[in-house]
Amino acid sequence: MNKAVLPLVSVYISTHNRLNKLQRAINSVLNQDYPYIEIIICDDGSTDGTQEYMRQLILDSPSVLYKRNDTPKGACSARNLGIFSAKGEFVTGLDDDDEFHPNRISMLLQHWKSEYAFICSNHTDQYASGKRNKYYKGASRIVKPDDLLLDNIASNQIFTKTEYLKSIGGFDTSVKRLQDWDTWLRLSKQHGQGFRLSNSLYIMHHDDLDTNRVSRNMTFSTALDALFQRNKKHYDKKSTYLLQSKIRLIQKKFTILDMIKNCWLKKNIKPVFQYLTQHINNIDI
């Protein structure tokens, strides 16, 4: 490929005290089959030797940049270090304990269209036991802004125009959980629909010993309600009800009225099985 006619892609990797995993993540970007990439390591106050390792790496690898919070400020703050220093036309992220497939960037660029707000892909869950499985089922699909109101179907990482992510202020540093979903929802509401490839181009590692992937200080149902409260202006009466009943389902407070109304609104019978499963699980044997 002729680098002179290719757009620069910025990849930000936020990290905190996970040097061994960070090295794998960095190598997966250095080994991309697309040649025009800048890698921005966003260190959230690591004290495990990450700073010393990065000092040497940036001398050996001109495409690697290093940004650092001297004291930890959280993953969203670290990601924003990369987003707002990115020089690429496009930007995407990578968690420090995950890795890219070698053709991730080239495939996303190949399928990019100017009318998209973002593009993303399927990912493979990799477990400590060796088990692997693709996360999303089905074909590639358009992701409309309203599709993100009830579920994060855009995965944990998206690929977008750098100016788009900057225009929404990057990640909201006040958000403690569901930061990616919150960001993609705001991005899509401002810039339009996205596209999700069925190809798995990202490996998400699930280490059974690692409990730091997301904050466990907030329950999922609480985080989901907080996401709704921040983005309430985007929800109409129907989507508000569906999200609130989803929260009740997670809390095991899903009523028979919820079951009936969800079946009617969603035009399927899955809520019946959700209701029955909830109540079977609540039976004290």
Write up what this structure looks like.
The protein is α/β, with parallel strands linked by helices and 285 residues long. The protein is 38% helix and 21% strand. It has helices spanning 19-30, 50-60, 75-83, 104-111, 162-167, 179-191, 220-230, 237-250, 256-266, 270-281; strands at residues 9-15, 37-44, 64-69, 90-95, 99-100, 119-127, 132-134, 141-143, 159-161, 194-206. It is globular.
List the helices and strands and how they pair.
Layout: E1 9-15, H1 19-30, E2 37-44, H2 50-60, E3 64-69, H3 75-83, E4 90-95, E5 99-100, H4 104-111, E6 119-127, E7 132-134, E8 141-143, E9 159-161, H5 162-167, H6 179-191, E10 194-206, H7 220-230, H8 237-250, H9 256-266, H10 270-281
Parallel strand pairs: 1-2, 1-4, 2-3, 6-10
Antiparallel strand pairs: 4-9, 5-10, 6-7, 8-10
Helix pairs in contact: 7-8, 9-10
Looking at this protein, list some descriptive labels.
10 strands, alpha/beta, 5-stranded mixed beta sheet, Spore Coat Polysaccharide Biosynthesis Protein SpsA, Chain A, 285 residues, 2 domains
Compute the gyration radius: what is it?
20 Å
Regarding quaternary structure, what we see is single chain
What would CATH call the class of the largest domain? Alpha Beta
Round the mean pLDDT to the nearest integer and report it. Answer: 94
Label the overall shape: globular
Structural class, from secondary structure content? alpha/beta
Strand order of the biggest β-sheet: 3-2-1-4-9
Largest sheet: 5 strands, mixed
Quote the CATH topology of the largest domain. Spore Coat Polysaccharide Biosynthesis Protein SpsA, Chain A
**Total domain count:** 2
Low-confidence stretches: 210-214
Order of helices and strands: EHEHEHEEHEEEEHHEHHHH
Task: Based on the coordinates given, report the CATH architecture of the largest domain.
Answer: Alpha-Beta Complex
Terminal CA distance reads: 65 Å
The count of helical stretches stands at: 10
Let me know the CATH homologous superfamily of the largest domain.
Spore Coat Polysaccharide Biosynthesis Protein SpsA, Chain A
How much of the sequence lies in strands comes to 15-25%
Helix content: 25-40%
